[in-house]
Amino acid sequence: MAHRPIRLFGDPVLRMPADPVTVFDQRLRTIVADLLDTVDAPGHAGVAAPQIGIGVRAFSYNVDGEIGYVINPEVVELSEKTQDGVEACLSLPGLGFDTRRAQHAVVRGVDVDNEPVTVSGSGLMARCLQHETDHLDGTVYIQRLDPAARREAFRQVREQEWFWQR
After folding, report:
1. Is 104 annotated as a binding residue?
2. How many whole angstroms separate alpha carbon 160 and alpha carbon 49?
3. For residue 80, is it within any domain?
4. How high is the pLDDT of residue 166?
5. For an engineered disulfide with 106, which of 57, 86, 120, 126 has Cβ 3.0 to 4.6 Å away?
6. Which residues carry out catalysis (predicted)?
7. What's the CATH number where 79 sits?
8. How confident is the model at residue 3 (pLDDT cuts 50, 70, 90)?
9. How many separate domains does the chain show?
10. Domain that holds residue 20
């Protein structure tokens, strides 16, 4: 398996909704292994399949020592209580913006054997679950910012050396 390079903001794969997984085979096992290898690095809280260039509904997470993955995730519960804090993304290196998220989230999906999986958490885990599921819907977190903050975020993105070197 492999630690895969991360696709950067501006790559079309990050803006397209990922396809649901319908075939549970060795190819899927390889994708999941690559997601787990890629998330198992310092500073990586989550990696969605589109971030490694694969347009399928799967992501891995690495939060507070808990490492795992979910295939075909759906957010099934969000608390009314919210959290504010700086959110970052591997696809927008060096940047972080205040983002409001639900304080608690529950995601349901399946594993590589198409068996049910439920992942829930509060704080950073809730933020991760929402962030990675957004990636699978073709949404990068800066798109969730209010209009003024979004304009500032896009201005900062355009100033990044990596943005012009893709």
Report:
1. no
2. 24
3. yes
4. 55
5. 120
6. 132
7. 3.90.45.10
8. confident
9. 1
10. 12-164
Determine, yes or no, domain membership for 1: no
pLDDT the model gives residue 2: 77
In this structure, are residues 59 and 46 in contact, taking their beta carbons and an 8 Å threshold?
yes
What is the per-residue pLDDT for 1? 58
* pTM for the model: 0.94
Supply 147's token pair.
Answer: 């209009």
- Beta strand pairing status for 116-122 and 104-110? antiparallel
d(CA 156, CA 70): 32
Chain segment 26-57, per-residue pLDDT in tens: 999 999 999 999 999 888 899 999 999 999 99
Active site residues: 132
If we measure between CA atoms, which residue out of 26, 14, 121 comes closest to residue 68? 121
For the cut 90, the answer to whether the pLDDT of residue 108 exceeds it is yes
**Contacts for 18 with CB less than 8 Å, ≥ 6 apart:** 48, 49, 50, 55, 56, 57, 58, 135, 136, 137, 138
Question: Are residues 53 and 7 in contact, defined by beta-carbon separation less than 8 angstroms?
Answer: yes
pLDDT, average across residues 88-100: 96
**Residue 128 in marked binding region:** no
